[in-house]
Design a protein that fits this description.
The chain is α+β, with helices and mostly antiparallel strands. The chain has two domains: 49 residues, no CATH class; 89 residues, 2-Layer Sandwich (Translation Initiation Factor IF3). 41% of the residues lie in helices and 14% in strands. The protein contains seven helices and four strands. A four-stranded mixed β-sheet has the order 1-2-4-3. The radius of gyration is 28 Å and the shape is elongated.
Length: 147
């Protein structure tokens, strides 16, 4: 806190030398070179900003075949968790299917994801970090099934 006040006082032009804390270097005995600098392996682990991407990223595809609109929240939770969802609405009532697509389109939009129709009554909903590529998508787009 003292250094922030010192900076503000310096900007204002006031003399704030009394607010500075005295820096006393740590005394070390003969040890590993990094320890002699006050930097230990524990400190390195705490300050390390490198993250193993394989350990933190787990991509998953969830296949769902909802029969009621009440399943929408469960599907939305998968999307919030950045999972790709394949939505099969073949045996879903047309009115319920429309409501599900509308709702999940909003969830995808809110999460910067995408929803694509890949076949009759089948959609794929992806999070923002997943792209859909392939010849099938081009074919569907040319046939008017892709939106």
């Amino acid at each position: 806190m003292g250094s922030i006040k010192s900076f503000i006082d310096w900007v204002k032009g006031e003399d704030a030398e009394d607010d500075f804390e005295e820096f006393v270097p740590k005394q070390h005995t003969a040890a590993a070179p990094e320890e002699s600098l006050g930097y230990t392996a524990d400190t390195a682990r705490k300050n390390n900003k490198v993250v193993n991407i394989n350990a933190t990223t787990q991509l998953a595809v969830v296949l769902v075949k909802p029969d009621r609109f009440e399943n929408a929240a469960e599907i939305a939770d998968h999307l919030k968790d950045k999972r790709t969802v394949v939505l099969n609405l073949e045996q879903t009532n047309k009115d319920v299917a429309r409501r599900l697509v509308d709702f999940l389109s909003g969830v995808a939009y809110a999460n910067e994801g995408k929803i694509k129709k890949v076949a009759n009554s089948t959609y794929i909903i992806t999070p923002y970090n997943v792209d859909i590529l392939g010849d099938l998508i081009d074919e569907l787009e040319n046939n008017g099934l892709y939106f």
